[in-house]
TrEMBL record:
<dbReference type="InterPro" id="IPR051607">
    <property type="entry name" value="Metallo-dep_hydrolases"/>
</dbReference>
<dbReference type="InterPro" id="IPR006680">
    <property type="entry name" value="Amidohydro-rel"/>
</dbReference>
<comment type="similarity">
    <text>Belongs to the metallo-dependent hydrolases superfamily. ATZ/TRZ family.</text>
</comment>
<dbReference type="GO" id="GO:0005829">
    <property type="term" value="C:cytosol"/>
</dbReference>
<keyword id="KW-0378">Hydrolase</keyword>
<dbReference type="GO" id="GO:0006147">
    <property type="term" value="P:guanine catabolic process"/>
</dbReference>
<keyword id="KW-0479">Metal-binding</keyword>
<dbReference type="GO" id="GO:0008892">
    <property type="term" value="F:guanine deaminase activity"/>
</dbReference>
<dbReference type="InterPro" id="IPR011059">
    <property type="entry name" value="Metal-dep_hydrolase_composite"/>
</dbReference>
<feature type="domain" description="Amidohydrolase-related">
    <location>
        <begin position="74"/>
        <end position="437"/>
    </location>
</feature>
<keyword id="KW-0862">Zinc</keyword>
<dbReference type="Pfam" id="PF01979">
    <property type="entry name" value="Amidohydro_1"/>
</dbReference>
<dbReference type="GO" id="GO:0008270">
    <property type="term" value="F:zinc ion binding"/>
</dbReference>
<dbReference type="InterPro" id="IPR032466">
    <property type="entry name" value="Metal_Hydrolase"/>
</dbReference>
<protein>
    <recommendedName>
        <fullName>Guanine deaminase</fullName>
        <ecNumber>3.5.4.3</ecNumber>
    </recommendedName>
</protein>
<dbReference type="InterPro" id="IPR014311">
    <property type="entry name" value="Guanine_deaminase"/>
</dbReference>
<comment type="pathway">
    <text>Purine metabolism; guanine degradation; xanthine from guanine: step 1/1.</text>
</comment>
């Protein structure tokens, strides 16, 4: 092993090895008060992890161990399961409700991505903000223009960052400048798959925007892509807004419900990730459970657009479990911070009368999302052999948090303080593929 390629960090470590919604927390939680993680920047993997007293004596003296100290917490890099990088420039736009917001802002902004240089500028800002917030991997929508896909993958490659992305496919109910056709969507998606999928850490995602913006012919084209690439991720939206659900019923009167529209085209399967899912019926949740499809929980966006509040515990029913990932859903989402996303997720759970602990929330933002995306064998855990994507949190990032932490009685309360009061200022450092790509100092 080339010691010049090794990075080592030390501090308290939090990770999960199983889903605490279905197992006792003691069987899921991995917590070490003083641990060392050794990462190989050549293979981009974690090569050693354990208690500092056990690991330090085994290390070559040339390896410098960066100690983040007792006020830190090292966690798996946060994973964003649903985000629109082209909407970075319109975050915090007065939105009204979903359809108005799309027409008044999104569809106008996305037309600018015909210009590759503009797309690259936005991609750079977006990824830097993600890294500043400890987000090391994301599943993002691009625009209808292939160059918007090139921009995000090219920029991510500079950081060796795991990004899943795809060209949005739309052939109706959007401005003329943003429409493709069934054939163009198929051809351009295929060309992008050949160009990017599996290149470095890039992963292509089949991306019909949502049922209202695709004709049956285009959904047939998406089916053809999905059938040709059975292990590829698919991303789209489902049951975000009551009016949207009613619109889909008008557009697809032969379908049982919103989910059935997608199921007819074999788009509901393992590694298919559906944004929102707030208003899914029991029948639809059965389909999600049977197929292994996932819901991306986007609470800041759902509250911002007045769409509703997802009941995570309802999805996490052991009789018919549904995969759930966390998503920021920028730019309807209001923060790049996964800590702030957890904060809003807690409020959504409270609105449903079904709260869950801070430990459950941290699970969802890491391993839970990795599992939902079908990437649990690579991301979301700190253990040997996993991808070396890590966030280091400062547990005393502001004066009020430092004061409040004096009275935290245990780990669960300390984490709740972080997810309620903390934001980007809590991220001390971010490591991607074993390399430090962001430092607060």
């Amino acid at each position: 092993m080339n010691t010049n390629k090794l990075t080592a960090i030390r501090g308290a470590v939090l990770s999960f090895k199983a889903d605490p919604f279905f197992h006792d927390m003691k069987d899921c939680l991995v917590y070490k008060e003083d641990a060392v993680i050794v990462m190989d920047t050549e293979t981009a993997k974690i090569v050693k992890f354990g208690d500092a007293k056990d690991i330090i004596p085994t290390l070559d003296k040339q390896i410098e161990v960066k100690n983040y100290g007792k006020d830190s917490l090292i966690v798996p890099g946060f994973i964003d399961s649903h985000v629109h990088y082209p909407q970075t420039e319109m975050i915090a736009a007065y939105g009204e409700q979903l359809i108005d917001w799309l027409n008044n802002y999104t569809f106008i902004v996305e037309q600018g991505f015909k210009n590759k240089e503009h797309a690259k500028e936005v991609a750079e800002v977006f990824l830097k903000e993600q890294l500043r917030n400890g987000v090391t991997s994301a599943t993002t929508y691009c625009t209808v223009f292939p160059q918007s896909v090139d921009a995000i993958f090219e920029t991510a490659a500079k950081y060796n960052m795991k990004i899943m992305a795809g060209k949005v496919c739309m052939d109706r109910n959007a401005p003329e400048a943003l429409l493709d056709t069934a054939q163009i969507a198929y051809d351009e998606s295929t060309a992008l798959i050949n160009k990017w999928h599996g290149k470095g850490r890039a992963e292509y995602v089949i991306t019909p925007r949502f049922a209202p913006t695709s004709t049956p012919d285009q959904l047939e084209a998406m089916k053809a892509l999905a059938d040709e690439h059975p292990d590829m991720m698919i991303q789209t939206h489902v049951s975000e807004n009551i009016n949207e659900v009613a619109w889909v019923k008008e557009l697809f009167p032969q379908s049982k419900d919103y989910t059935d529209v997608y199921a007819k085209y074999n788009l509901v399967r393992r590694r298919a990730v559906y944004g929102h899912g707030i208003h899914l019926t029991e029948r639809e949740l059965d389909v999600f459970s049977e197929t292994g499809a996932a819901v991306a929980h986007c609470p800041t966006s759902n509250f911002f657009l007045g769409s509703g509040y997802l009941n995570v515990r309802k999805l996490k029913d052991e009789k018919r479990p549904v995969h759930v990932g966390m998503g920021t859903d920028l730019g309807a989402g209001t923060s790049f911070s996964m800590l702030q996303t957890m904060n809003e997720a807690y409020k959504a759970a409270q609105m449903n009368g079904k709260p869950y602990t801070s430990l459950h929330a941290f699970f969802l933002a890491g391993k839970g999302t990795a599992d939902a995306l079908g990437l649990g064998d690579k991301l979301g855990q700190i253990k040997e052999g996993m991808d070396a994507d890590i966030a280091v949190l400062n547990l005393k990032s502001t004066p009020i948090i430092e004061y409040r932490m004096k009275y935290a009685k245990d780990l669960e309360e300390a984490l709740f303080i972080q997810m309620t009061l903390a934001d980007d200022r809590a991220v001390s450092a971010t490591y991607v593929a074993g390399k430090e790509v962001y430092s607060a100092k």
